[in-house]
Amino acid sequence: MNRSPHWPFHVTLSIICALMLVPFIWVLKTSLTGENIFTYPPSVLPQDPHLFYYVDVWYSIPFFRYLVNSFFVSIIVVAANIIFNAMAGYALTREFIGKRAIIMLFLSCMMIPFQVTIIPAYLITKELGLLNTYLGMALPIMSTIVCIFVFKASFDAVPKSLIDAARIDGLPDWKIIFKVMVPLSQSAIATNIILAFIWSWNNFLWPLVIIRDQHMQTLPLGLSRFLTVVEDTTGAMYAFCIMVLIPGLVIFLLAQRQFIAGLTSGAAKG
Amino acid sequence: MLLFKRKKTRETLLIAFFLAPSLIIFVLYRIIPLVWNGVLSFEFWSPYKPAEFAGLYHYQEMLFYDDVFWEVLLNTILFMLSAPLGIVLALAIALLVNAPIKGRNIYRTIVFMSYPVMTVAVGIIWQWLYNEKVGLINYILISLGIIEEGIPFLESFNLALPCVIVASIWQVVGFYMIVLLTGLQNIPPSLYESAAIDGANSWQRFKRITLPLIRPSIFICIVIGIINSFTNFDLVFVMTQGGPGHATDLLITYIYEAAFTLSKFDYAAALTVVNFVFFLGLALLANKLSGGEAGAVETGD
Amino acid sequence: MLRSVFVNRYTITFGLTLVIALLWNLFVSFNDSGILSGRVVDQNNQPIGNARVILSEKTLLVTASRDEVITDADGYFRFEGHKLYHLYLEVSKDDLASASSQEVRLYFKGQNKILKKPLVLEPQS
Known about the structure:
The complex is a heterotrimer of chains A (270), B (301) and C (125). With 270 residues, chain A is mainly α. Helices cover 72% and strands 0% of the residues of chain A.
């Protein structure tokens, strides 16, 4: 095979990557200088960078409270997701009456975007008395079908002989799960953690609908309302953006492989 | 025999117990809302008065008297039709980063990075890029001498929707790329080798081998694009709030507005039903066209 | 095996974040007495005593004057116990006034700070 030179690839890809990165870099720069774009000459590198816009954001809204709220909801979601999805995934590896029906139910639930059910979901949450609560924010995404199937696939891959051996040894089911299944499905767990965290962290519509209390707002809500609270916030607004983006980005960069594995397996299943 | 039976019951109980939490959540937040939503759309209802049967009243109003509905529907369709644009772009990028070059993982990460970040922040960033006075895009256009003074992109009736669509493509293109890349990597290299021996040029190889073999991935992308156009609430809400007028309102933002700003829950429910039926129809159609691969799940027995 | 459980990129990232947060809070708790001191001089760099220094708060949300002190004979002034992070200093004495108010930004509320550059009073035209 004739090998074409590599540099056209690098040039094209560099341009594409630059286009993808420019918004991020510009936001970062503005958050450090607050300088207007029309300052002349426009500089790519920030001049006199300072962190005071971050300080402004921290104090002018209860930022720490929002951060704690966001983290708390995410932790509930992640924990519930691992436990519930692993349980359901395990159950689906076993034979029982109505298994096909349950699988069909799960698959059809996948075709119902959450956004479509938002009005009754709001009314149900109201009936349950969960408006303005962490649990209310977490409940609808405490189990995800994609991840159930990720777990199922991972459990299916565990050799039957291993489970049988454990059963002959007289281990009860829960022990089989913790001693045999969990160690062998670490990648499924990792995938689930990162997917659940990112979904919960970025979740906007649902908290917007059910949170009225100022003190229960999560970061996306705080960010979207920041514009209406203050004026002339070029620097502070983008400092806020950066502060909100960083946790999600760090976690994504740390667990990129698992995240992509989870998304593609989810996508492959509709 | 008895022992066996008891063991069987125990196991069934265990399975039921394991399935219960997930099932409860899905029934509570998917199935019941779907049914309730359907019921609600045939009623006169508000939080302060008892329900009353309304028949097709809301649907009639929506289809015959609500011009906004048609505008919003058109916007949603336009939003959806923009998906192929993103997919073609993503395919080009996927082909580039699938080449055996140094640092391709870094390129992949950078292109994909815009997907997992918070859409609300993406909306704010793009809103500012489009700003009439201090936006980067206007600045570049002015510097290049293409325009004389800033264009108020997001306040313009004609330009607002395309602008939102561009931001949306920017965010989702990395995801398309990853999906397509997975498809590309599943193509056995031997196919290309034998094609090369047969003297096929690279365009022929692309048309004869690559495209047919990544068809399932492309259809997955189309389904994602459809879902995106029905669920992309965050971006529109943050960037334009559906404005100017209803120029950028999608069905989902219009539903939110009707329900939670105007408190017309019953009417919003009717909109939701239309939204869902429309979505389901398209998703099933895409699935059918792809030969069922996009929604195929090995039920594994 | 144990090493890989406790020393990996996750524990390092989150551990470092925690440590930095802790250290920062420790630093803050030792330096937040709200001391702000500086000096007032005239154009010839001579200290000005008995000048009024007004401390006002300016944040994204409020603008209000919070405190005032009088400089001593050597032109020194000192505020204590303020709880501000973005503030302005205005100096005035009889017919003299600072050209413009001096902006001071702090990294946290009540950060102790000694202004290195003296505030300059000029005759009011």
